[in-house]
Amino acid sequence: MKFSRSLKSSSHSVPSPDGQHIAILLSSLVHIRAVRSPEVVNVIKLPQDFAGPILGFQWSPSSRLLLIAGPEQVRVVSALDSSFHAAIRTASVPGTKPAYVGFGASDAEVCVISSYGLKFSLFDLTSSRAAEINTPKVFSPSSASRCFSFRPQTRHLALLSRVSGKDLISIHSYPTRELQRSWAPDTIDAQGITWSPDGRWLVVWESAAQGHKVIFYTSDGHLFKTWSGPANPSLEDRDYAIGAGVKALQLSADARFLAVGDCSRSVCIFNMASVTETMRLRHPKSVASTETLQVWQEQIGVSQTGPIMHTFLRTTQVISPAPRLQDNSEPVSGCAAISFDPTSALVATRLEDSPGTVWIWDLEAAELRAVLLFHGNISVLSWHPHVAETLLIRCEGEQYNGIVFVWDPLSEGPRSVDFSQHLPGLKTSGKPRASWLGSGMASGPSLFFSDAQHYVLGCLIELDEVAPPWASHHSPEPSYAAETREESPLELVPAEQDGPDKARAVEDDDDDYSELEDTFVHKR
């Protein structure tokens, strides 16, 4: 394992999707650092009227733009130069904030869900136009992203809304967001909507309180199939009809499989080529290592002088995963998390009643491949987006603040990576965050770790002749600020002739910008 030196960070720092840059928000400045060198390649200064807490800090899908959202306005800026700058002012009740702010189907689109879910707004940054749709179905800010989905390739918007006490699905074209079709699904209280990654299916699922129901529509909105519970349930699941319904739903990245978890110990797997239930994965209450099943248990060693050591021992006896610690809250059960690896060969799950256990299944053989038992509750399960069968795991608790675990089938249990030993003071500050860096660099899978003050990069390589990403590039960093462009970074409209610093402003219900009122078409 190789590490970079620690660099200044903040509670708002995020790597770009292509893994080439790190954006750090420091007070009223945004620093852009290159991964391949420690240099700051651009500094973006926020306007003085941009005040209040930061609600969103996000890269665009192409890694060319940055979105910074506050309670009253949203700024979209070019990350590597000053050729683009857009401002969106959101009208809100004093003391409230938008439920969701983020990029839409492209760099040129920003989505804003107002407080209390009153309206769903889409701002087109190339034309300074906005489309508004009333009453999106938003339960809370944490679930706001489940009420809409963008279809791959065509970028159509599917939106779940609530009108007159009934669920409504609407399809809107790109980029105008004109309504193409709408219908009322056969649901009482739908909790989410999503397009399949290949764009063939639109999936809607009912809330757990209303029983088992997942509805599959074709891409043009026609009903194809309704799933109302597991086919041929086992003896343990024979009473599923009187229990709670869908709790977790996840599509694989290649659109081959769909996993549905309910409040039982089972997960249904669908083959999306025919939308049929092909297997049911049932979590056993006790496990033991075999030739085809690895069971690894965490061992924590405490040292008076050195760091806490996290190692794993392969069990040789039957063991039961540790149950959730009892408290005054109501008991919970069922599947809490599902995650497919990029090849759909493996799927990782976590149960509510054993939150410190990771179950890893082989979908081709339809059997359990590994069980990883931790002392802390699992908070993050993330497969590398491009490197097959490589899983990132994070746990809750102070003893895990600087620790990240990486597992793959050929390793001797999960591998602990201690980033705190590479931070000043050998400890973390604030809430730490960890994620995969970039899209499968030639030097090997890399990790991004940050706390409230510093960030560190780590690369999962051991050979000295292989250089990590931050040491594999020795040519001087190009001066992005000095470059001139004939087109804007969106590559959709010509660049402004008045200079690169000229900003587009899109104002929402603001009397000071009445000249844009006639562009607010497509209101419903």
Automatic annotation (TrEMBL):
User: Mind telling me which InterPro entries this protein's record contains?
Assistant: Centrosome-WD_assoc (IPR052778), WD40/YVTN_repeat-like_dom_sf (IPR015943)
Where do the segments described as Disordered lie? 472-524
Write out the biased-composition intervals (Acidic residues). 507-518
Write down what this protein is called: WD40 domain-containing protein
Native organism: Podospora comata
